[in-house]
Design goal:
The complex is a heterodimer of chains A (403) and B (89). Chain A is of the alpha+beta class. Chain A contains 14 helices and 14 strands. Chain A has a domain of 137 residues: Dna Ligase, domain 1. Chain A is 37% helix and 22% strand. In chain A, the strands form four sheets. In chain A, strands 5-6-1-7-8 form a five-stranded mixed sheet. The chains are: A alpha+beta (403), B mainly beta (89). Chains A and B meet through helix 1, strand 4 and helix 4 of A and strand 6 and strand 7 of B. The structure holds magnesium ion (MG). Magnesium ion binds next to strand 1 of chain A. Chain A: Belongs to the DNA polymerase type-Y family. Chain A: InterPro entries: DNA/RNA_pol_sf, DNA_pol_Y-fam_lit_finger_sf, DNA_pol_Y-fam_little_finger, DNA_polymerase-Y, DNApol_IV, Rev_trsase/Diguanyl_cyclase, UmuC.
Amino acid sequence: MQRIILHFDMNSYFASVEQQANPFLRGKPVGVCSTMSRRGCIIASSREAKTFGVKTGCRVDEAKMLCPQIKLVEVDPPKYRSTTENIVRLCKEYTSEIELYSIDEAFLDFSGLIKSFHQAETLGQIIKTRIRQEAGEWLNCSMGISYTRWLAKFAGDTAPKGGIVIVNPQNRLTYLKGRDLQEAWGIAGALASRLNALNIFTLDELARYSPINLLEVFGIRGYKLWANVNGIELAGLEQRKIPKSIGHSHVLRKRNRDEKFHKAVIMRLAERTGRRLREMNLEAHGIYAFMRAEGLGDFGVSRKVFQPILTTWSIYRQVLEILAPFLKKGMPTFFALGLFNLQPKSDQLSLFEKPKSLNLVKALDIINNKYGEETIVQGDLAGLSDGHAPDRIGFRKTVGLDD
Amino acid sequence: MLVFHEQPHEKVRVFVDFSPGQNNFKRVIPRAFFWAGKRYDIQSVNLVYQRRRGNKQDWCFAVSDQANAFVLLFNPENLEWILEEVQGQ
Ligand SMILES: [Mg+2]
């Protein structure tokens, strides 16, 4: 079976949606900014603004210097999210295998549904037309069609704005020929220089290079680079299915009436749940908490909440609220907590945040991901020794943030 | 240059055409509205999207006439129309 994957990327998405909503902005340089103040930054710029050099991340006053006639509008996530939903909905009529990679990019897997790249191109044209008819006539996208996920995205990324590029086994090497390494998805500055040191300057040189040597120099990462440009599927579509619920539980080995200790266990469970929630870019509209206590039996409550739950702290606070009356009475032997009614975060802009504007919670997650679980923990976790609510094996450094 | 921008958040009277259309653009079509004693004839419905309010969703209609772009918001709970935004040129 010929695998056929189509990748599409909406062009200048946020700015185009703004131009869709307000036709007086069409054909003009538009900057979508985080806030209207001078110190705000440009989150997205229209095709017209890009010709003046106004790029994502540019400060508002810089943008005005580059392009005095620029029209600035404030970012309005519901517009983009709703429009993406419309686009995805119509794509679902062609395949159920869809990976929404970001708010303006998706992979559609047509394998088994159609026979040729040519048919995929026709489908691509139909989808482009329907996007214009049903999501907005000002909305354009670039498409890439190929036989692996990586090549499809590479084709889409390198396609001319609004165009469709097909990379098939026959034209792959010609398409890669002479292209700079950094044009490839996942190859940036430092890695490119290291490849240059091996006399690899273009993508076709990379494709022809010995995978054994790459494996020796770069480890598995080197092999992946080689496999990607050679059309060997490594990933497949990652369909981000939203789980029904996420949660953690813990059986207490030590039984006591030390409320501080119990709170610390709950905080640790909340911390893990919160991290998973954020890793999946979800928000929760339901929470449950459950405990078992010696002599008192089981106690648990689940409730729906209006305000989306996003942070560890809000999980912790609400679980404590549920369990508080019970916590004082008995000797707990088991805790469980979790979140349900999960949905994509309503502020999907996090995808476009620059590292400097990452909020603290996310920064902590990054540090923990890099340096190991619980390198940095919330106040209530500090002082809790290992062995309580462990979910992974390994050494953990535990440092309190605010003690 | 900032786009001339106003957020009146005012209840307005709207003439609406309900049609059995294929998609959001064609099902509910605001045709005209009255604001500050003036009638605005809508020339095109440019974008239809939803906006969350608590755990409810409002429908937003980004529309335009000859001179301006507007966002009309429909609250399906109390069936009210609100003029949310005016963007001038
Ligand atoms: Mg894009």
